[in-house]
Amino acid sequence: MRLAADLPPERLDRSRYELVVDERFDGPALDTARWLPHYLPQWSTPERSAARYALGGSGTDASTPGLTLRIDHDQPAWSPEFDGELRVSNLQTGVRSGPAGSGSGQHPFRDGLVVRTPQPERPLWLPHYGLIEVSLVPCLHPRALTALWLIGFESTPEQSGELCVVELFGRDIGPDGSGRVGVGVHPFGDPGLRDDFAQVATAIDLRDEHRYTVEWMPGAARFYLDDTLLAEVDQSPAYPLQLMLNLYELPDGSPRDPADYPLEARIASVRHWRPREIVEA
Question: Is 2.60.120.200 the CATH number for 2-275?
Answer without folding.
Answer: yes
